[in-house]
Amino acid sequence: MSTVQQPDPRDRPARLTVGVVGAGRVGPALAASLQLAGHRPVAVSGVSDASRRRAATMLPDVPLVTPAEVMARADLVLLTVPDDALPGLVEGLAETGAVRPGQLLVHTSGRYGARVLDPALRAGALPLALHPAMTFTGTAVDVQRLAGCSFGVTAPDELRLAAEALVIEMGGEPEWIAEENRPLYHAALALGANHLVTLVAQSLELLRAAGVEAPDRMLGPLLGAALDNALRSGDAALTGPVARGDAGTVAVHVSELRRHAPQTVDGYLAMARATADRALASGLLKPELAEDLLGVLAKGTDGAEGDVR
Question: Which of 66, 108, 106, 105 has its CA nearest to residue 83?
């Protein structure tokens, strides 16, 4: 084992000054990560009290200023605002002359590629789209989670190496996403991550209603195994009454959900139909069992009580 002591990143000279426009959950974490890589955060903007507190916690001693001042101070500016606000922000910065030639302008939206930065590009900025495929808490744990995190990277060809280098410096893994594929890429992540949170939260509520005292401890190992199996095996990991074609069990589920948690019925039916389709296509669900199952799901959609057997 080598005994050579590695230099502390704080002892290295800063290579880029970094600014953040929009101190939500993402921007301060990325800036803090870049700071660990030797860059120097110099300015951050935030509107809400929560964003200002977050910036003060994640980036202590970094001044809170206006977006225009962030642009004036930083070589690399992170635009970490909501997706719908991004086009207007970019246009406004370009129209007011806030963008400087040669300035690296990075947005973290999953939806957009580099073209949303075209107004800044015309003003001489270097546009990069770096989207971390990660959920953020707005706390220091986010910096740790960036280690090994995939980033959806979109940039002009001449800036591809620069974009990938920044991702690597943050501990991430760059994954090139073509401009035209950004919306599909983002939809895929939302389908998997955002909807997963909804499903887990509903499951926790139902278990509590069923009298389970520690639903988190019950679900943790089960969901961890299901996720691992799905990532390894895809549709072959499907289990449960829908994949088996247990129409009677599914009918009971629909009946109980309609009685105790009617707000979950539509989601259960939609996921059950999608599961049935995939199980049938992969050969897990026998065609002779699929007919009864799909009939139960159709009755559930109509609001009728399932055929409990």
Answer: 108
**Cα separation of 18 and 121, whole Å?**
18
Cα dist from 242 to 198, 252, 289, 300, whole Å: 20, 12, 10, 14
Confidence band, pLDDT 50/70/90 cuts, at residue 300: confident
- Tens digits of per-residue pLDDT, 41-79? 999 998 888 988 999 999 999 999 999 999 999 999 999
Q: CA–CA separation, 297 vs 165, rounded Å?
A: 50
* Confidence grade of residue 219 (pLDDT, cut at 50, 70, 90): very high
Q: DSSP characters for 167-199? A: HHHTT-EEEE--GGGHHHHHHHHIIIIIHHHHH
Angle between helices 195-209 and 265-281 (to 10 degrees): 120
